[in-house]
Design goal:
The chain is mostly helical. It folds into two domains: 7-334, Hydantoin permease; 339-451, no CATH class. It is 75% helix and 2% strand. It is built from 19 helices and two strands. It has a two-stranded antiparallel ribbon with strand order 1-2. Helix 8 packs antiparallel against helix 14. It is a multi-pass membrane protein. It comes from Peribacillus castrilensis. Belongs to the branched chain amino acid transporter family. InterPro entries: Brnchd-chn_aa_trnsp_Livcs. The chain crosses the membrane at residues 7-30, 42-61, 81-102, 122-141, 153-175, 195-213, 234-254, 281-309, 321-341, 347-367, 374-391, 411-432.
């Protein structure tokens, strides 16, 4: 019989998941969106919250329905696609993007505002990033105790500090919300939708979901039904927390322009907003918040990517992979935050649509009887346009791509993959019916094949 789980345990699990998702991406993109969108912030946030928050819950449910791991989920398309998608996903969530981005954001907000001279700024970044990533490796060496303390100690501390900053911004606003900047004059909702990609939360859900499910099982819960119930309760706590956070810090960004002017990235927006609201003391408040969220994100991601590569390439142990990926992450970190964001954008524009497509297919699986042709054709349709968006983001053949593929609905707004994905879905369904493919029905977490 399953053990009864108390509300405090559910709350602790929810806060643990909240802490794992609450990384650099969750606190730097919403304030930047607020600055740029101005009076259109709330419309832009509608789109942002769908991809940055709302789909997180669905992603973890999709993971459980798809077999419990991202490889099994993506394997419904093809084993080679599963390998490609999983490796690119883990590398992006580890040394290529998340670890460098997180380390850079912590530096930008925690240390940079305290530096008096810009002459040797590159040296400060090198020293800080080395120390911060060494701390990440140390805490990742054995994550059991660290993860146990996430929901009980670390999350409440930075939640209270961040709450103080947010409340102050409402009580004494820094200024009025200004006019939208270029880029937010048209298609605001869809612009916010694509900006939500950069939080990485849907992609992170594919990785953290497994940890979440294991945590529930460790409480003595064995039945799938009870695991799902607890998951939904804890997940709702996580989602409510993320929505409240994103909307609040978008407000900070939207109301900050009069006081601090337009900034290049969300890290600068938060750091200077904290100073505008609390003076010099604001640096310590936001610095502590970002340090705690940053270290939790770095540890979770470095541990996850090292465990994954140990599993697929066991010639190197988990601890050796930790060292390899920490060195790679350290190297990329020192290009600076703006360069990191520019480098990663094309990858995210490819991965995110594919992830959303996989989630949608898993939920619709039984409606189209799980035909593999539908999975393949839909992913091809989504992937081709997502690849074109990636090339445009990297400034490769931008004019040629726009002039050739501009006829695709919503292409100019960066979500043309929705249209081609639907076309691919219908083609796959016709092919499957023609070939009389075997169906694969999902029942709970068990996949039952029906000829």
């Amino acid at each position: 019989m399953d053990k009864k789980v108390s509300f405090s345990q559910v709350l602790s699990i929810g806060l643990m998941l909240f802490a794992m998702f609450l990384g650099a991406g969750n606190v730097i993109f919403a304030p930047m969106l607020g600055q740029q969108a101005g009076t259109s912030t709330w419309l832009a946030m509608g789109g942002f919250l769908i991809t940055g928050v709302g789909l997180v819950l669905l992603a973890i449910i999709a993971l459980t329905r798809g077999g419990g791991t991202v490889e099994k989920l993506a394997g419904r398309v093809h084993p080679r696609f599963a390998a490609f998608f999983s490796i690119l996903l883990f590398l992006t969530l580890g040394p290529i993007y998340v670890i460098p981005r997180t380390t850079s954001v912590v530096y930008e907000i925690s240390l940079k505002p305290l530096i008096q001279s810009e002459a040797n700024e590159w040296l400060y970044l090198i020293v800080f990033s080395v120390l911060f990533i060494l701390l990440t490796v140390f805490l990742s060496w054995d994550t059991k105790k660290f993860v146990d303390n996430l929901g009980k100690i670390i999350t409440p501390i930075f939640s209270i500090l961040l709450g103080v900053l947010i409340i102050k911004s409402f009580i004494t606003p820094m200024g009025k919300i200004g006019d939208p900047q270029e880029g937010y004059l048209n298609g605001v909702f869809l612009k916010g939708f694509t900006q939500g990609y950069y939080t990485m939360d849907i992609l992170a859900a594919f990785i953290f979901g497994g940890i979440f499910i294991k945590t529930i099982s460790s409480l003595g819960i064995k039945s799938e039904k009870e695991v799902s119930k607890i998951f939904i309760k804890a997940g709702i706590i996580t989602i409510i927390g993320l929505i409240a956070l994103q909307v609040s810090i978008a407000w900070i960004g939207a109301s900050s322009v009069d006081a601090i002017g337009l900034k290049e990235n969300g890290g600068e927006v938060l750091a200077e907003s904290a100073i505008a609201l609390f003076g010099k003391f604001g640096v310590y408040i936001i610095g502590t918040v970002i340090f705690l969220t940053g270290i939790t994100t770095n540890v979770a991601c470095l541990a996850a990517v090292s465990e994954y590569f140990e599993r697929i390439m066991p010639s190197l142990t988990y601890k050796k992979w930790l060292i390899v990926f920490s060195i790679l992450g350290l190297s990329i970190t020192n290009f600076g935050l703006n360069a990191i964001l520019t480098l990663a954008s094309p990858i995210l524009l490819l991965l995110y649509p594919l992830a959303i497509a996989l989630i949608a297919l898993i939920f619709a699986n039984n409606l189209f009887k799980g035909y593999q042709s539908v999975y393949v054709s839909t992913v091809v349709g989504v992937g081709l346009v997502a690849l074109l968006d990636s090339l445009k983001e990297a400034h490769i053949l931008t004019h040629a791509i726009n002039s050739t593929f501009g006829f695709i609905p919503l292409f100019e707004h960066g979500v043309g993959w929705i249209s081609t994905g639907l076309v691919g879905f219908l083609i796959g369904l016709i092919v499957a019916k023609t070939k009389k493919e075997s169906s694969v029905i999902i029942s709970g977490q068990v996949n039952d094949k029906v000829s």
